[in-house]
């Protein structure tokens, strides 16, 4: 399959910062064909991730470790946290912003954040089955279990601890 005219043009203009600065506002994925220097340009990348957080994939490692860039990207598409630096995967503010959009990102959280009740509650509120990646301590926390089971029923139930699986309030949620 032949490349689109937009891709051909982007490849030809791979060194043209002004072209990408403007073009990514309407066609953010074109950033893939920019040179390394442009993919390390914070203003260009911010323009791209405001429209499509997933374009973070093509940003430089330096910008994947920039909190402003990350917050902008995950605010647009929580799942793009997967492209973040390890340092920012351990940042509570970034993780909370991402989990509000997509609880699945708890999978990428640091060990410490998988044991942070606020982060885990945010994640299981919109993706109950992600409870399986929470710390054992929080899978044994009744508040967390109630949220996960109330939203995810049997899918989340299997990931709470055996002690809580016998809790009458939690059993009642399964039957409702």
Describe this structure in words.
This protein is mostly helical and 176 residues long. It has two domains: 1-89, no CATH class; 103-176, no CATH class. It has helices at residues 5-12, 17-23, 42-51, 61-64, 67-76, 86-89, 92-101, 117-126, 136-139, 142-157, 162-165, 168-175. Helix 3 runs parallel beside helix 5 (67-76), helix 5 (67-76) packs parallel to helix 7 (92-101) and helix 7 packs parallel to helix 8 (117-126). It is elongated, with a radius of gyration of 20 Å. The mean pLDDT is 95.
| Major sheet details | none
Instruction: Output mean pLDDT.
Output: 95
Tally of helical runs: 12
Please give the share of residues in helix: 40-55%
Spatial extent as radius of gyration: 20 Å
The helix/strand series, from N terminus to C terminus, equals HHHHHHHHHHHH
Tell me the overall shape: elongated
Q: Uncertain segments of ≥5 residues (pLDDT<50)?
A: none
Could you say how many structural domains there are in total?
2
Number of strands: 0
Question: How much of the residues is beta strand, in percent?
Answer: under 5%
User: How many angstroms separate the termini?
Assistant: 52 Å
Judged by helices, strands and strand pairing, the structural class is mainly alpha
Briefly say what this structure is.
The chain has 12 helices and no strands.
Keywords:
single chain; 176 residues; mainly alpha; 2 domains; 12 helices; elongated
Topology record:
Layout: H1 5-12, H2 17-23, H3 42-51, H4 61-64, H5 67-76, H6 86-89, H7 92-101, H8 117-126, H9 136-139, H10 142-157, H11 162-165, H12 168-175
Helix pairs in contact: 2-3, 3-5, 5-7, 7-8, 8-10, 10-12
